[in-house]
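Protocol step 4 of 6: structure prediction from sequence.
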Amino acid sequence: AAGWWFPTRHAQVLLWIARDEDARVRDIAAAVGITDRSATRIIGELVAEGYLHRVPAGRRRRYLISLDRRLHHPVEGSASVAALLAAFGPLPAAAAEWRAS
């Protein structure tokens, strides 16, 4: 590997959660190739910025993505999270539910 990736770790975490909104932090970390602590930090940052929402699901948490949220870097213009995720493949059927959250 070159030591860096397209997309960033934050985007990789979002992509993994889009594929499995019930994924545990350790599952996300393993899939992305980062530590549990890094995954927890990234998820916390995404929640703080409004890109993710934590929803209790029994003894676990579910993560919902704010698909209509705009990416915040000037280079990305007015692209939405949905557009970012769609660039990597079709969104899961449950994505329609996330728009309302």
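Step 5 (inspection) to follow. The beta strands are 52-57, 60-65.
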